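Researcher: Next entry in the queue.
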Amino acid sequence: MTPRDGADRSGKPPAGPVKSLTYRTSDQGNRLRIYWADGSSTDLECNQEQSTLACG
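Model: Structure for this entry, 56 residues:
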């Protein structure tokens, strides 16, 4: 079995634990930012429909 190094080879987020999450709102849109334990981050666009917030 080959160990995984967390590098983004297929456009997917790193395999590993999440360090923290932040939700940001602005005039340009709403974003969920995921901070990964390896120091990288991922931004997901969020939309609200009725009382449900969907990010992805």
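Model: The two ends are 31 Å apart (CA to CA).
Researcher: Noted, moving on.
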